[in-house]
Amino acid sequence: MPDNLPPAFVAYPRLPGHQLLSLQGVDAAVFAHAQFSSDVTALPLQHWQWSAWLSAKGRTLAVFQLLRLAEDHVMLVLADGDADAIASQLQRFVFRRKVKVQVHADLAVAGAFTAPEAASGAAIAGGGDAGWELDLGSDALPRTLRIGPVEGFAAGSEADEAAFALAWRQADLRFGLPRLEESQREVWTPQQLGLDRLNGYSVKKGCYPGQEIVARTHFLGKAKRAVQLLHAAAPTQAGDAVQQDGAALGSIASVAGDLALAVLPLETSDAELQVGGVVAQRVPLLEGLAR
Question: Residues with Cβ < 8 Å from 80, sequence gap 6 or more?
Fold first, then answer.
């Protein structure tokens, strides 16, 4: 557990920015499979995977955890929120599918920097009124995510929740998980965001929005950029340029305190990087979050 967290965080503080959206009905899995980048129908029950929703041009609108809780129930954990807008957009594609799109204000998401009690890898533990437990870490950085009724989690002070949410977001970036602000949505391809590291998209399943572009980039070897973790000596913002030897090299896609995920060319020199005229140090990404 990070040294700077208050003792109360050993429990399960809420992650107020996380939102939940469910797809329920006999066509839930098939509908999700047709809309999202991962192979939903191949996912076993009570397991989860990383997935994304892409535009028709293959640009990433949202990155999320996709849980297959039952034959007729798929749930999305949206770390960057926007559940209402995504639900509204998804509803346009339901047509005659037997699926109900619902945002869950009755459920909350909480986390802890401890190993799960029962969940492991992609396998989900729990269910029903007890909620669900997910393994969202690795041996190097264990984390547990819990989903359950709002009243099941004690809300901390606003300052404590903000501090924990920042620590959680920084851990996401250390694993290479992009956290996208509104300005960075529909900007990057899944390859540029490194979603292959998380098994976050499929190039083998059938059609989904943006699939042709994703597959073409994959099979023709045209991915020229990917994410790199940087430690910035001064505050940065998503969209800031990353420079090397005075020339623009790439830009920042995600920020969490003094850490940032930048989309940079796959082949770069070892020369110093700068953001806003200040040195930015390269930091190795952690492995172990692929599911």
Answer: 17, 62, 63, 179, 180, 181
Query: Beta partners for 52?
Result: 63
237/152 Cα distance (integer angstroms): 35
Burial class (CB in 10 A: 0-12, 13-18, 19+), 246: exposed
The helix/strand/coil state of 65 is strand
pLDDT tens profile 71-105 = 999 999 999 999 999 999 999 999 999 999 999 99
Structure tokens at 24: 């329920």
Q: How far apart are CA 256 and CA 215, in angstroms?
A: 31
- Please say if the pLDDT value at position 154 is more than 80: no
Of 38, 39, 70, 65, whose CA–CA distance to 122 is shortest? 65
Among 100, 23, 27, which residue's Cα sits nearest to residue 66? 23
With contact defined as beta carbons under 8 Å apart, do 175 and 23 qualify? no
What average pLDDT is seen over the chain? 92
Q: Does the reported pTM lie above 0.85?
A: yes
- In angstroms, the CA 26 to CA 17 distance is 30
First to last CA, the chain: 22
